[in-house]
Q: What sequence folds into this?
């Protein structure tokens, strides 16, 4: 079957670094997406990886290992506004997104 | 309008009633999707449309129907609502059909079925 696993909740301190992990199992693979979702709002796109390695975009970076079925989202210099849920989603062979349940990130001052 | 709009924002509905959730996009995207989001679960695909005139079933299609008469609109209908359909419903769109591309989401409809 198809499955995405990510931690339910994480806590970090303002100004610090946090890494949110995601493992996936899909029928075929066409890339790994990360979305951010603030409470009561819609998900918004953060990053896309299809090749192994690290993609950096400002304070956010995303890593992919296809052989391990593993990705992580790295957030640096955490700000209070980064408090949100982070959704991992893998695209299968039919170009459908399989979503994880999301990781709620709590930032403390 | 810019992006995707959904209506209504929220709705309380009696079980057994019929309800249509509206979704409109102005980005001329080919593909559109309906998801439901429940606490502790990931977004689950209800129905999708790769292009105007075609629709397909997602992971949880039972109790829901969709139509795609034109590029912009993708309404979701609950023929006879049940309490288990209480959820937040998101409409999304993406540029390509069967291709890689980010999905853009509407603001969501919070539906409560009593």
A:
């Amino acid at each position: 079957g198809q499955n995405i696993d990510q931690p339910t909740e994480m806590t970090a301190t303002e100004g610090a670094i946090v890494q949110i992990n995601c493992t996936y199992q899909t029928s075929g693979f066409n890339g790994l997406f990360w979305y951010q979702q603030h409470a009561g709002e819609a998900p918004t796109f953060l990053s896309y990886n299809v090749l192994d390695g690290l993609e950096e975009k400002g304070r956010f970076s995303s890593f992919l290992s296809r052989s391990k079925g593993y990705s992580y989202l790295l957030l640096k210099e955490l700000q209070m506004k980064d408090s949100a849920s982070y959704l991992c989603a893998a695209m299968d062979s039919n170009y459908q997104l399989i979503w994880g349940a999301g990781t709620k990130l709590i930032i403390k001052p | 309008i810019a992006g995707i709009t959904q209506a209504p924002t929220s709705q309380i509905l009696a079980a057994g009633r019929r309800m249509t959730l509206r979704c409109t996009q102005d980005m001329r995207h080919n593909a559109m999707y309906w998801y439901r989001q429940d606490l502790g679960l990931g977004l689950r695909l209800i129905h999708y449309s790769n292009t105007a005139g075609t629709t397909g079933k997602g992971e949880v299609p039972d109790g829901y129907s969709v139509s795609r008469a034109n590029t912009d609109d993708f309404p979701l209908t609950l023929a006879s609502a049940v309490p288990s359909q209480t959820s937040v419903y998101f409409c999304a769109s993406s540029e390509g059909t069967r291709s890689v591309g980010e999905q853009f989401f509407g603001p969501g409809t919070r539906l409560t079925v009593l």
Observations:
- The radius of gyration of chain B is 13 Å.
- Chain B has a mean pLDDT of 94.
- Chain B touches chain A through 19 residues (CB under 8 Å).
- Residues 21 and 76 of chain B are 5 Å apart (CA to CA).
